[in-house]
Fold this sequence. Notes:
This protein has helices spanning 2-8, 10-17, 19-38, 49-77, 79-86, 88-101, 107-137. By secondary structure, it is mainly alpha-helical. The radius of gyration is 19 Å and the shape is globular. Helix 4 crosses helix 5 (79-86). The chain folds into two domains: 1-78, no CATH class; 87-138. It is 85% helix and 0% strand. InterPro entries: EamA_dom, EmrE-like. Keywords: Membrane, Transmembrane, Transmembrane helix. This is Drug/metabolite transporter permease.
Amino acid sequence: MTYALYILLPAKAIEKWGSLIVIGLGMLLGGLVFPIAIQAWKYKLPLTGGNLLALFGLVFIGTLFAYTIFLKGTAMVGAVKGSLLASVEPVTSVILTVLIMGDRFFAIDVVGMILIVLAVIIISLKNLVALTKEKIQR
Length: 138
């Protein structure tokens, strides 16, 4: 459910203000609230060049860039298709972890992947039915 909200909630805001403003404000809010929630001042991070480079990569490439591209793509193809395409990511992550890292693959992993895909399909079918009814009424 939260995954569906993650995709669907910002859609109207993005239409009104654009994806960069919505992403920027969302990340700013998260950046202000999250450190307080986890009490970030209790952790000591050595400020080495490697740590700063890793932090930069996580923030700008792994989060800001990835989320911007995701929302731009979702705006182009629609929330339903975007969520269907994005549902492949956790499945791909598990498979690549097994292949590259030599991690074990358990039955519960398969069950989780199936549940993820089924949830997205169910949401998509509900939206498809609603859109079809709306088109018929017009």
